[in-house]
Amino acid sequence: MAGMPAGDLQLTPESARLLAFLRDEGPRTRAQLAELSGSARSTVAARLEPLAAAGLIAAAGGGVSSGGRPAGFIAFQPGARILLAVDLGATHGVAALTDLAGTVLALEAADIDIADGPVAVLDWVIEAAERLRKRLGRPKADLAGVGIGLPGPVEHSTGLPTNPPIMPGWDRFDVIGYVRARIDAPVLVDNDVNLLALGEHATVWKQEDNLLFIKVATGIGAGIISGGRLQRGAQGSAGDLGHVRVPFSARTPRHGDANADLEALASGPGIARALTSIGVPASSSRDVVELAVALDPRATAAIRQAGRELGEVIATVVNVLNPSVIVVGGSIARAGEHLVAGIREVVFGQSTPLATRYLTITESHAGEAGGVIGAATMLIQYLLDPRDEVHR
Amino acid sequence: MAGMPAGDLQLTPESARLLAFLRDEGPRTRAQLAELSGSARSTVAARLEPLAAAGLIAAAGGGVSSGGRPAGFIAFQPGARILLAVDLGATHGVAALTDLAGTVLALEAADIDIADGPVAVLDWVIEAAERLRKRLGRPKADLAGVGIGLPGPVEHSTGLPTNPPIMPGWDRFDVIGYVRARIDAPVLVDNDVNLLALGEHATVWKQEDNLLFIKVATGIGAGIISGGRLQRGAQGSAGDLGHVRVPFSARTPRHGDANADLEALASGPGIARALTSIGVPASSSRDVVELAVALDPRATAAIRQAGRELGEVIATVVNVLNPSVIVVGGSIARAGEHLVAGIREVVFGQSTPLATRYLTITESHAGEAGGVIGAATMLIQYLLDPRDEVHR
User: Looking at beta carbons, which residues of chain A come within 8 Å of B241?
Assistant: First the structure.
């Protein structure tokens, strides 16, 4: 993630903390907020004032649908601003406008080709955003931020794509600068797997502080939530499962290369190569998914074996990070239960009992909107969450 | 880590944030603090008042050694309280009193036997604390907290040792309750490797947010700092490197068991078994260290091979967590450069260039006090660091 503070909602930490409480716990009176925060009523009033001025809070009970709540309650207003949340894949793009709670208000999906380069793809994003905004009838000034997920590594400190293997023309392209020149709002960029982890955490597994999201498609990568926070590592390359070497003993004889990494074996193209080698022609993730959906037993067996190979690496990660939930997504996971079954078989057999006793391994159910909900979550954290700084 | 809030210094988040600033950045005037925090002078004064009342801050320039700083500067007073920091190993215990900056003021080390059980060992801790306190001439009321590191797994939510393999009699013993009945202060308990990671981070690598501390002795474990925070995982078992299965291809022929875990191969006793199998009798970490210090080439070769086996597992962790620093400690690491050399050989050969370009792998130089500095760091974070809660 990288962003520009200008255009930020510029909340003080004290106001942001009160807002976070109203977001998480629901409407409260000024008296309740004063008691809960141990502050004077006048102090609470002063901290609420900028939130009210920005439209982020309002009296609950005045609205049409509020159901007769007693007067004096103050409620978070998620509709006060809109966010542009974008998920770009190799061949598919989704742009959505959400509110400040991450609820999708309008969405546009298109077949794009990421290899057309950043200008063509980002121009589609900007035009789609404009269409969506007009559809909702919201003024430009309502847009509080832009979050974009890319299908490749992104340098944490700058937001620049860094040697993205499937994104010709994008290497070190200034995505933030290009979009900001056209949309006047903070722009954040991250890789798609990190955003899928954030989205899954925010929507399905909010109570779990230790979650691993693993995407298996043309590539293999992971997004890591540990201690309640997305972990990017020192250079932003954390979660790179695809380039871990798989133990030789874990593989079927078809895989002779002792130096093969996980992606070469267990990604969509890796499974396609394994199928081709046993006389079932396949060349892409899409081919593999089609065979599996048609219940070809050779395809389902190959996917399960890929799950086992993934499991060999995930078993180590489970011992090291002790997550409570592992969510598996991507096209190969969506082709049936075979991938997750193979992962479960190895992880529950190999990791320590202490690390697996309360471990859930499951498929992602986020669907097409998972990536954009993650992008919205990243923006909401950036714009609204309290930060621990004396000076902000 | 688990603790009891009673006896806490009970700082409000706002006061804690000002204190954190003075701790990190040094003395400032009220006017500077007001400007930096964007608050009114009166607000800053109100937040400083409880810090002054607790003795945690005082006017700088009034002291003998202040060197003529202009009047009006306010400084953190690390000597306002003392902390009891304890590091317990299998056969060795260290108890120290530190100030609120983690500086060791007095220390006592003893040969203990953790297998004597919790009552005998903790009674030594309590008696040592009393001797140290009297040596410093500080009243009991000055002790603000107790931090204890144990050589085994500790359940995060309760502080209870959980099936600790080398600690007979300690399983689910209420360490916190036993100590608190004798010392009236908050008590925190964690495993020793987590504390070694915290201590190394606080003293040597403060600017690095992603650090891995690996201890290689009778057992093998890791403490993980990611995103600037110690990561414990869902049940507190994060960092369990010792029970990861080592790829068969990575081993020398001496290791025939395909299901052997890292600890069976690369710990002190594992290296001793390998040496015994080639006609060099050894049975413990201590034997291995003695042979290595005497420069026995078979011992140094066996330690280097253990480093390679560690490297096979660490290479995966590097891809997954993208740390910037790996610190290797424990008795086997202290026996020479052979262990770290073996780790480096494999990790720099196997992990991805993006993950290793800026990676440092080094020995720990913390020495005997490393564990107690970590215990003090845990306490200081608990007592003084701002927490993100409306209600505290």
Answer: 319-320
Mutate one of A30, A155, A237 to test the B interface: name it (highest B CB count within 10 A).
A237
pLDDT, position A71: 58
- Residue A235 with chain B: CB contacts under 8 Å: 322, 324, 354-355, 357-358
Cα separation of A118 and A130, whole Å?
18
Residue A272 reports pLDDT greater than 60: yes
Shortest Cα distance, chain B CAs vs residue A359, angstroms: 9
B267, two tokens: 């710990």
- Which ipTM did the prediction report? 0.83
Query: Which chain A residue is nearest to residue B313, measuring alpha carbons?
Result: A316
pTM above threshold 0.80 = yes
DSSP classification of residue A168: T
| Range with lowest mean pLDDT among A382-391, B263-272, B324-333 | A382-391
pLDDT digits (tens, 9 = 90+) for B173-223: 999 999 999 999 999 999 999 999 999 998 889 899 999 999 999 889 999
Cα-based torsion angle of the residue sequence B304, B327, B364, B232 in order, rounded to the nearest 10 degrees: -120
Q: Do A226 and B227 touch (CB under 8 A)?
A: yes
